[in-house]
Design a protein that fits this description.
Layout lengths: L2 H12 L2 H12 L8 H17 L3 E5 L7 E6 L10 E6 L8 H4 L3 E3 L2 E3 L3 H20 L7 E6 L10 H10 L2 E4 L4 E2 L10 E9 L1 E10 L15 H13 L9 E9 L9 E10 L2 H16 L7 E10 L6 H15 L3 E8 L5 H6 L4 E3 L5 E2 L7 E3 L3 H18 L2
Parallel strand pairs: 3-6, 3-7, 7-15, 9-14
Antiparallel strand pairs: 1-2, 2-6, 4-5, 5-17, 8-9, 10-12, 10-13, 11-12, 16-17
Length: about 400
């Protein structure tokens, strides 16, 4: 695109600051916990209505259990290439039903608050306005697709294939998970720093199920085989698989079991979180966890391990570094310095990187406190992150084929 057109795009976005806040309010107040299909679909309708109002094609990718995938499509201008640039994001949150009623969107001292405001409804807002800006300008030399999914917070069991299908067709992916705003530079100055994600760990969610034998805990104790006793003795060995130097963590995050207080526990369960850095770590770690879970400590018990959800790692690649350079240059032109950090958190960006699509993650507005009542987004970061993304999309269309 020409610099004149880029200037027009930036000006168009600058005139929509209040509209961004309004769309963010509508999205945050749409109750969309992962397991609430109706609520997640309602949040999808907010975006679909916005896309249609700006002349975009809307497609629905239905699912019977989780929220539907929805995507907005902007065709390339005449003579443009066919491979799109993909703007990716999820609209589900971790919060229980009714949370937006209890904590609706509010702005206090320059920060927006509400369930999912940073993770990642504000990211969806800037993506929506960027694709709308290019629609108003008559398109780009490449198609642009915005895909929003419904179950990222539980490792995208219904969205994985959809995300990867879109990524296989794309030339690059921008995933607008929240960025972090760094401290002001020493000595002051006008340069702001946006901290995005340069790499992410892979994550595997697992459930261990132990089966024992019930017995009366007073009268026939010796006949019982306690599943709780077996599982309890496996927690420490599971945690001992953690190797911080290698970037590996194992956490038993939930545990339960038993029948009544006066019954030897016939069953017990635990949910296990594994994080790792390199793809070649995954297999041996899962096998080590499986051996611990399925090897009885208490005679007469049995154990089984099941994988319930999985994120793939976001690993660096030459193409990914080129995409980061494009984004840094775009931000620098707006007075923003970009740094990239590795994180143990997981996201759908690992799915797109795994199919060799250049991927950049955490280019959303700056925020913090995700998954807590203190979650916030910096309101003044909405516009510059939208403008940076627009410039990066423009340059990506020119440089990535």
């Amino acid at each position: 695109m020409t610099s004149t057109t880029n200037s027009d795009i930036l000006a168009w976005l600058a005139s929509r600051r209040e509209g961004m806040i309004d769309l963010l309010r509508d999205l945050v107040n749409a109750d969309s916990g992962t397991w609430d299909k109706a609520g997640v679909d309602a949040a999808g309708k907010v975006l679909s209505d916005f896309w249609r109002s700006h002349g975009l094609e809307v497609r629905t990718h239905p699912h019977p259990v989780f929220g539907d995938g929805v995507s907005g499509h902007l065709a390339a201008r005449e003579g443009g290439a066919e491979r799109p640039i993909l703007l990716l994001g999820h609209r589900d949150t971790v919060f229980p039903k009714g949370e937006p009623t209890r904590r609706p969107f509010t702005i206090r001292e320059g920060r927006g608050y509400g369930p999912g405001v940073a993770d990642m409804k504000s990211g969806l807002v800037i993506e929506a306005f960027v694709i709308a800006a290019f629609a108003a300008a008559g398109g780009l030399s490449a198609p642009i697709v915005m895909l929003t999914t419904s179950d990222e917070e539980i490792a995208s069991p219904s969205s994985r294939e959809l995300i990867q299908a879109f990524a296989r067709d794309a030339r690059a992916v921008f995933n607008a998970e929240p960025a972090r705003e760094a401290d002001a530079p020493p000595g002051g100055g006008n340069t702001r720093t946006q901290v995005i994600t340069g790499g992410r760990k892979g994550g595997v969610f697992m459930k261990a199920a132990i089966t024992g034998k019930a017995a009366h805990s007073g009268a026939r104790y010796e006949l019982g085989r306690s599943a709780i006793l077996d599982l309890a003795q496996k927690v420490a060995p599971l945690h001992a698989l953690t190797d911080l130097a290698a970037g590996v963590t194992v956490n038993v995050g939930m545990i339960g079991g038993g029948q009544t207080v006066n019954t030897i526990a016939p069953s017990a369960w635990a949910e296990i979180d594994l994080r790792y850095v390199h793809p070649d770590q995954r297999g041996r770690l899962i096998e080590a966890i499986r051996r611990i879970v399925e090897t009885p400590v208490v005679d007469g018990t049995t154990g089984a391990l099941a994988v319930t959800g999985e994120f793939l790692p976001l690993t660096e690649s030459d193409a990914g570094r080129q995409l980061l350079d494009i984004y840094r240059s775009a931000a620098a032109s707006l007075g923003v310095e970009v740094t990239a950090e590795f994180t143990g958190g997981c996201a759908d960006s690992g799915l797109t990187a795994a199919v060799d699509c250049p991927t950049l993650c955490s280019i959303g507005p700056c925020g913090g406190g995700g998954h807590t009542p203190e979650e916030f987004v910096v309101i003044d970061s909405l516009l510059p992150t939208a403008q940076t993304l627009a410039l990066a999309v423009s340059e990506t269309a020119a440089r990535f084929r």
